[in-house]
Specification:
The protein has 385 residues and is an alpha/beta fold. The chain folds into two domains: 205 residues, Rossmann fold (3-Layer(aba) Sandwich), CATH 3.40.50.2000; 168 residues, 3-Layer(aba) Sandwich (Rossmann fold), CATH 3.40.50. It is 46% helix and 15% strand. The chain has 17 helices and 13 strands. The strands form two sheets. Strands 3-2-1-4-5-6-7 form a seven-stranded parallel beta sheet, with helices on both faces. Strands 10-9-8-11-12-13 form a six-stranded parallel beta sheet, sandwiched between helices. The longest helix is centred in the middle third of the chain and has 24 residues. It is globular and about 65 Å long. It starts with a strand and ends with a helix. The mean pLDDT is 91.
Length: 385
Amino acid sequence: MRIVTLFFRTSVKTGAHKRYLELLTEFNKIGHEVLLLHWKDVTYQLPKVQRISFSQKINYHTNDYIECFTIICNRNKIKKEIKNADCIFVFGEGNFLQALLISKILGNIPIITAVRSNFVEAAIKVQKAFVVNSIIRKSLRYINLKRLVLLEKLILKKSQGIILQTEYDARSILQRNPRSTTHYEIVPNSINASWIKENTAEKNRSTVCRKLIYVGSIGKRKGFYFLFTAVRKLIEEGYDISLEVCGKGRKTKLYRKKVQKNNEVKKRIIFSGHVKDVLNRIAKSDLLVIPSVYDSFPNVIFEAVKVGTPVIGSNTGGIPTMLEKEELLFSPADSISIYEKLKKLYKSPEEYKKIKEICNNRQHTYDFDWAKNISTSIQRCLDSR
């Protein structure tokens, strides 16, 4: 297949970014021709991927409007350099409008969309978890939710097929769009990403639960507030427990101020920001906690499982599909549920050993050729016309 892709980021900042770019390289290895549209000044390398670069016409932080404007300005270049493409492959809803424009420029070639997040349900759950009283903020939330609902409908209407990560996401999206006849495929993430598969981190050897780690952005959807509240309560009650926070967000300064109010909390909740050696840090921790209000398929669970560090997470979205067992789950958006789960693991080395064994046994479930499965699903979507 000759596949058109796009990635309008100048650097790789998330696990999803890394997975996408690695997927394009793997597509090449199994015989597909990949054409990537991107900004001119980038910091990542993609061997054997044909690249078509653009200069930003507006010197401003990139967004959907700037990217669409750039595509329109370069429509002749796109027509000239892209011939006989089989499809446009979109990885995540964030680039769908851009893909729609490119499809029009290239004569309405089919779009296959990998929907990486159940973004409508995520927005609904975040709104329920964090109530606001301001009329202005309520109105903005309402407008944003309507925008996301329209985007979801547009993706279903204009995509030749969609690729989802879990049956849960498929049921959720189709319940909101019962008239949709769009072909869909289910392909979960694989544990075989190169930075996970070839990691040099020392394997975890913990026998008790004392040192916790959180990896992700400090925002509402990731549910950091609920983990922070639970851990702070345990520390204030005298438990010998700590939390390392690897990640940043708009609320980082607020949480840094909160820990200043108690010296013991200040010593035990450490904000490390973005770190390069995340696998080593996970390996040296006793437990990874995923407190998301909603999450489709967090890559960091695979990273922890690969180095032998046990994981517990919210019973929401794709997390229960990944972790499966009740012993590894707690109620979403519920700091008391997290508190009780952590206290139980702290007090019982036997329970901690049990969840560690459960996590180690989950490795084999997601050990498969991800690029090959995605490629097969793209072809099935195209054949469904």
